[in-house]
Write a structure and sequence with these properties.
Blueprint lengths: L2 H11 L22 E7 L8 H11 E12 L5 H7 L8 H10 L3 E8 L10 E7 L12 E6 L2 E6 L10 E3 L1
Parallel strand pairs: 1-2, 1-7
Antiparallel strand pairs: 2-4, 3-4, 5-6
């Protein structure tokens, strides 16, 4: 919701024709139902008291077969880090995040810790991927896209992620 963050994001994405930035709450996104091909939550869930409504919003805005990617901190016991960063919760265990994503209606959930980079000062990261159900009668496409997340390449396959105007929300 930070005006400064939106200003910086607008400057960085000014040349991207398929990026739309909106100000709003993670638990009440200003986006219509089933309008996004992809949704990314990057280092955001540890800043909310309850991740459940945020993940439900992520599922709500995704089109049938839409892809969800969550990158956040793995559960840690570093109170100094949590306090300094303003985290409301100290991260998540992989099975905990996977269960919350499934409860939000996301399918084919995969969660795994990412190995920390040498010299990393913060806690380890957790990567989760999933998708929404396909619409009745639809067919999954074989197209795939590689995404670099924290030095790890993940492959997202299916519809969306094309350069011809696919829509997503970057949170």
């Amino acid at each position: 919701q930070s005006a400064a963050m939106l200003k910086a994001a607008r400057a960085r994405t000014a040349s991207c024709g398929n990026v739309e930035l909106r100000r709003g709450s993670l638990a009440e996104l200003p986006i219509e139902d089933a309008t996004c091909d992809a949704a990314l939550l990057v280092l955001a869930l540890s800043y909310v008291a309850d991740a459940t409504p945020v993940l439900a919003e992520m599922a709500r805005i995704l089109k049938p077969g839409g892809r969800a990617v969550v990158l956040d901190v793995l559960r840690h016991d570093r109170e100094d880090f949590q306090r300094a960063m303003g985290q409301v919760v100290p991260g998540f265990e992989a099975d905990e995040l996977g269960e919350r994503m499934a409860a939000a209606g996301l399918l084919e959930v995969s969660c795994r810790p990412l190995p920390p980079e040498a010299g990393a000062k913060g806690p380890a990261l957790l990567l989760a991927t999933s998708q929404t159900a396909l619409a009745a009668g639809s067919v999954s496409l074989s197209k795939s896209t590689n995404i670099d997340v924290a030095g790890e390449t993940i492959t997202v396959s299916g519809s969306g992620f094309d350069s011809s105007g696919s829509r997503g929300i970057y949170v």
